[in-house]
Amino acid sequence: MAMKNLLTSALRSQRRLALNRAARALSSVSALDSASLTSHSPSPTPPILMPYDHSAEIVKEKLKRLENPDQRFLKYASPHPILASHNHILSAPETRVTTLPNGLRNSKFEEQRINRERDVILREMQEVEGQTDEVVLDHLHATAFQYTPLGRTILGPAQNIKSITRKDLQNYIKTHYTASRMVIAAAGAVKHEEVVEQVKKLFNKLSSDPTTTTQLVAKEPASFTGSEVRMIDDDLPLAQFAVAFEGASWTDPDSVALMVMQTMLGSWNKNVGGGKHMGSALTQRVAVNEIAESIMAFNTNYKDTGLFGVYAVAKADCLDDLSYAIMHEVTKLAFRVSDDDVTRARNQLKSSLLLHMDGTSPVAEDIGRQLLTYGRRIPTAELFARIDAVDASTVKRVANKYIYDKDIAISAIGPIQDLPDYNKFRRGTYWNRY
């Protein structure tokens, strides 16, 4: 019986082995058949590339180019790619100049576009009116330079914008876009001689009206008027005001001293912090007593005058203390000035001027502005020498000239019921000292 069971199990195992071999053979044949079928069948269509897939392909292609740069752009087999034949790229200033005169020579002034730009300017005017800091400074100019061109806003009244015509634009360009009032400034990888040649070719049809800005200013000179303008608006959470003295013009030698005095007063914002450890006595006083949200000293220069003052934002119950602190520290410049404060302000001013020159666009803008205001580009060494020439005695002299017992202009908006009146501000411009 046992022998019979052994024979039966042996036969079953042989059958299983045979079935497994047959199954393996069939699977291999089916795999070959499927492979042959797939090789003869057409490949499926690739999926549609999405925009981000296209961007990824572009990035991959650029990475491949960086990994395998063209040998023409490699020099001396250096591992760092160096552009060897770059003269044909940098010697084409025409591509940088030809677009400038298009607005002067090829403008068609189509009525449709004029209407569209008119709507854009009106929307910008509404946006500016919603920015309280812009409103305060516009009102400050309006009250300080009453009935003069400097008292008008940059955008102008809405009625002029709505009524401007094609002929008005053409007359404006013909009158003001003259050769004597225009500067073409370039910075970066450009050659001066080639840029000059391109400008001579492209700007040869400009008006040669000899009228200069000096003559225009002489017709309507700016006159400073001590006054104030206030707009009470209790819906605003904070009060904002600016107090300013008449400053110096661009070409006035005292303008550099006023720049140093502006840096001495400094600026501060509550969100930034650090006011308790700043060098400015005004910012320290404001930060320690927590009487303002932000303050900023400003010095604005124009052709024949300027504005020097402080702009502040504060809560309604802090206006009295804040106004006293501002007038005290500003007037103190005419009495007590330490050499350490002047040195700190000089160094900080020079650092900010250098940081402003970071890039070709700021450099080109600085070149154009200085040529229009000074008639030349002042070298950095000369400007720093003028700043270093300002000492404590210079600050006192300039403060006595522009601040001590001088009229002021005030502009305020918001919940300003507790802001002191004009006479109290004016009283803070002098001290009874013997």
Description:
The structure is a single chain. The protein has 2 domains: 89-130 and 149-219, 2-Layer Sandwich (Cytochrome Bc1 Complex, Chain A, domain 1), CATH 3.30.830.10; 227-427, Metalloenzyme, LuxS/M16 peptidase-like (Cytochrome Bc1 Complex, Chain A, domain 1). The chain is built from 19 helices and 6 strands. It has helices at 2-40, 51-67, 87-90, 94-97, 102-105, 111-129, 132-144, 158-163, 166-176, 192-202, 213-219, 255-265, 281-289, 319-332, 339-356, 360-373, 380-388, 392-402, 422-427; strands at residues 227-232, 239-247, 267-269, 294-301, 306-314, 409-414. Strands 1-6-2-5-4-3 form a 6-stranded mixed sheet, sandwiched between helices. The relative contact order is 0.10. Mean pLDDT is 81; it is low at 26-40 and 72-93. GO terms for molecular function: metal ion binding; metallopeptidase activity. Residues 30-42 have a biased composition (Low complexity). Residues 30-50 are annotated as: Disordered.
